[in-house]
Amino acid sequence: MLKVWLNGYSGQIGQAINKLLDPLQYEIFCTDKDELDITNVDSVMSFGEINRPDIIINCAGMTNVDECEENKEEAFRVNAIGARNLSIIAGKISAKLVHISTDDIFNGTKEKPFDEFDEPNPSTVYGKSKLAGERYVKEFTRKHFIIRSSWVYGYKENFVTKVIRTAKNGEVLKIANDQYGSPTSAHELAQFILYIMNTNEYGTYHMTCLGVCSREEFAKEILKQCNIDGIIQSVSTKQADFTSKHPSYTVLDDLILRILNDYQAPTWQEALKDYLKEVK
Ligand SMILES: NC(=O)c1ccc[n+]([C@@H]2O[C@H](COP(=O)([O-])OP(=O)(O)OC[C@H]3O[C@@H](n4cnc5c(N)ncnc54)[C@H](OP(=O)(O)O)[C@@H]3O)[C@@H](O)[C@H]2O)c1
Predict the structure, then answer these.
(1) Is residue 236 part of a domain?
(2) Edge-to-edge order in the sheet of strand 2-7
(3) CATH number, domain at 122?
(4) Residues in the ligand 1 pocket, defined by CB under 6 Å
(5) Of 164, 208, 271, 280, which is the most buried if we count CB atoms within 10 A?
């Protein structure tokens, strides 16, 4: 039976992966900050050496973009050093490492999607710390999958749940009309992670649901699919609700998956429909 060590299992993506991991197929070790702090190299090394997982999945991270701006050291500690520690142990015990990264490593000023060969150029502390994490993964372990995704919503408070709650309260929603991305359900991302981790096709992947929209279009689709009559005010990021500092255009092009003809994600609207059915 393959052993899987899932870090950050209580986060949005961690929960989605945990739901899909079949305990009959895998021996699963779930840890989060309370059980094991990935920034502590000794804890990471001893957990890995004792349990000897075949696959390590890193869903742990400091993901609040505003908090990262305010606390740069902690952002780099978790997103860069944490990733480094996991890649050192992965290399040492010859485990595969799945590391989740983000569209924020790009600085979207062009209106063209970024593929895996575009040069990262992050503008935020969050993006810079995530890029540093990717670099450590590449440096310390050969058997890695770096999976970049964007606008992920799952089983914790997120953009979708906030839009629904605010509209149901009858409040006006101020939504950004100047940020573009590909909304991706944590479930779809988790399905892809389970698929790719069982291959030997190592490297960096862009994986999002298909299609592109603005935050405003995303919010409108959420309300439409929920049959809620909300009032949306179209504003810029500076005035918007639920939107942090973020480059305006960081759409990811899944070039590698297209070339390999490997994996077909659903459209973001289809994935949203499935998500709403599940969480209702
Ligand atoms: N959400 C997105 O749109 C998105 C898009 C692309 C990539 N990603 C990446 O995907 C990963 C997971 O994202 P997510 O949305 O699932 O984030 P999330 O819901 O914030 O979950 C992250 C988890 O990591 C835990 N954590 C934080 N510091 C830790 C530490 N030092 N040691 C161990 N665990 C720690 C958090 O615990 P606490 O809650 O207690 O702090 C939380 O349970 C992150 O690396 C993120 O950068 C996310």
Answers:
(1) no
(2) 26-31, 2-7, 55-58, 96-102, 144-149, 203-206
(3) 3.40.50.720
(4) 7-8, 10-14, 32-33, 37-39, 59-63, 78, 82, 100-102, 130, 149-152, 156
(5) 208
